[in-house]
Amino acid sequence: MAHSVSTTSGAPLAGRTAGPAEPSVGTLAKSAMADMSTLIRSEIELAKAEVTTSAKRGGIGAAAFAAAGVMLAFAAIFFFVALAEFITWLGLARWISYLIVFALLVLLAAVVGFIGFRQVKKIQKPERTIETLQDLPDVMRREAPGQRQHDLPTVRDGQVVRQDPHARLR
């Protein structure tokens, strides 16, 4: 919030004292805090609106993928019945052809399950996030402005540089 002082009849400002027309430092600080608060609330509302829109689109997309998956599952049933009938047409007994298709499905399920198991084992815990969350109590400790006695954690190249939380500033 900028304020300008107008001079009347070209009189120099050097001899003037601050009058009631000029806001005090306290008033300016209150105004700045109110403006900052309004700005932060507005940004939060904007973020909520954007996330809500994205979430709706994501939900619709997920529902469409789910519907496609269900239709693909029904189509797979018909495919495997047709495959069993094809094997029967080649000269095997019907029950043997359906047993072959069943064994093929069990084998495919085992392979996909094994791949999924290996992928789940590769999941790593979010170590950097855990590390920064462990430093959070030290960061949130309230010390009087200008009276800080502890260093804040620093981040270099995406890594939190650990410091002794009880070490004093040098």
Question: Would you mind describing this structure in some detail?
Answer:
- The chain has 170 residues and is mostly helical.
- 63% of the residues lie in helices and 4% in strands.
- The protein has helices at 25-89, 94-121, 127-140; strands at residues 154-156, 159-161.
- The protein has a two-stranded antiparallel sheet.
- Strand 1 and strand 2 form a beta hairpin.
- Helix 1 runs antiparallel to helix 2.
- The longest helix is centred in the middle third of the chain and has 65 residues, at 25-89.
- It is elongated and about 100 Å long.
- The model has no long low-confidence stretch (mean pLDDT 78).
What tags apply to this protein structure?
single chain; about 170 residues; mainly alpha; two-stranded antiparallel ribbon; 3 helices; 2 strands; about 65% helix; about 5% strand; elongated
